[in-house]
Amino acid sequence: MLVSLGWAAAGFVLTVVAADQLLLAAGRLSARLRHLTAVAVGLAAALPELIVTGDAVAADAPQIAAGTLVGANVLNLTLVLGVAGLVRPVILRTPQPRRQAPLSAAAVILFGLLLFGGLTVVDGLVLAGAAAVAALLLARFVGAARLRDPGSPRTEAVRLALGLAGTVAGVHLLVSGGMDLATHLDVSPTVLGFTLVALGTSLPDLLAVVRAQRRREPDLVVGSLLGANLFGSLLGGALLALGSDAREVAVRLSMIDALERTGFSPVVVALMAGTSLLAWLVLARDLRLSRPESVLLACAYLVALPLLG
Predict the structure, then answer these.
(1) What range does the domain containing 14 cover?
(2) Kind of pairing, strands 90-91 and 288-289?
(3) Nearest-5° angle of CA 66, CA 72, CA 74?
């Protein structure tokens, strides 16, 4: 058990550090190439979750992948966004995040609905198609964000390669160590994905949004989180469905399975959808997130933990 804990801890730290550098390099390279669109930002922010999904599916651990996707979606719009608002009140300067919010909410809700019934190949194709449509809509209607410090292309290319390699290695250690831990502690793999693994993939987003807040780039903060949820749900869900079905591994998180087999409460999936809808409503009402509202968001993640099982 101590060995498994050590591997999981090492993977957690490596994932956080490497994914942070990966996101930083991806954003800077996109800015220099003048392609820092909502699509590029969202895909970069969702990369850690996508890597976890691929690794978990390859390791016959689809429940870890599902738990990570759901957990990251909740974390991004509660704890991560809340901490960003505590650093400095989030006052959006453009309507771009408000245009992105309904697409992100729709993606999360679609993923949640399909997850309840058990993901199939057809569901995977639907999610992949929805991701393509969402990317086109984002490129057409949301537009581009600006980054003040694009950095050196050569330096950022090296940072990107090392960050990607480190993230893949860290995720593998985290997933394999986490699977052993779940067995030793008799904890559901889905719960492990929702907590430890999701936190590991969301902490780089937290570091990125804190940096953006300090540079007074609130639109980039909100846009990256909405994009991470959008592409994490659609592409991550598609990868989970297609990969798991190809390996003949059941990925069922129906209400009965969630409560009796995985320990993953359906209420948590509803909370995932609810946080996305709440973000949409807040952005539709106003372009500002105050510190008191940020405190409530940061605490909302803690409310979800007792609902896991």
Answers:
(1) 2-308
(2) antiparallel
(3) 105
> Which whole-number Å values give the CA distances from 204 to 143, 233, 305, in the listed order?
24, 18, 21
pLDDT in tens, the chain (309 residues): 777 778 778 888 888 888 888 877 876 776 665 555 678 788 888 988 998 899 888 888 888 888 899 989 999 988 888 888 888 888 877 777 888 889 999 999 999 888 877 788 889 999 999 999 999 888 877 655 555 555 677 888 888 889 888 888 888 888 888 777 777 777 777 778 888 888 888 888 888 888 777 777 778 788 889 999 999 999 999 999 888 765 544 454 443 444 444 445 677 778 888 888 887 777 776 667 778 888 888 888 787 777 765
In total, the chain counts a number of residues equal to 309
pTM: 0.85
Spatial separation of the C-alpha atoms in residues 264 and 91, rounded to whole Å: 35
CB neighbour class for 210 (10 Å; exposed up to 12, middle 13-18, buried from 19): middle
**Beta-carbon contacts of residue 292 (< 8 Å; ≥ 6 apart):** none
Give the dihedral sign, CA 58/61/63/68: negative
Calculated CA dihedral for residues 166, 161, 204, 127, nearest 10 degrees: -100
DSSP letter for each residue of 117-161: H---HHHHHHHHHHHHHHHHHIIIII-B---S----HHHHHHHHH
The total of structural domains in the chain comes to 1
What is the distance between the alpha carbons of residues 46 and 55, in angstroms, rounded to a whole number?
A: 15
CATH number for the domain harbouring residue 36: 1.20.1420.30
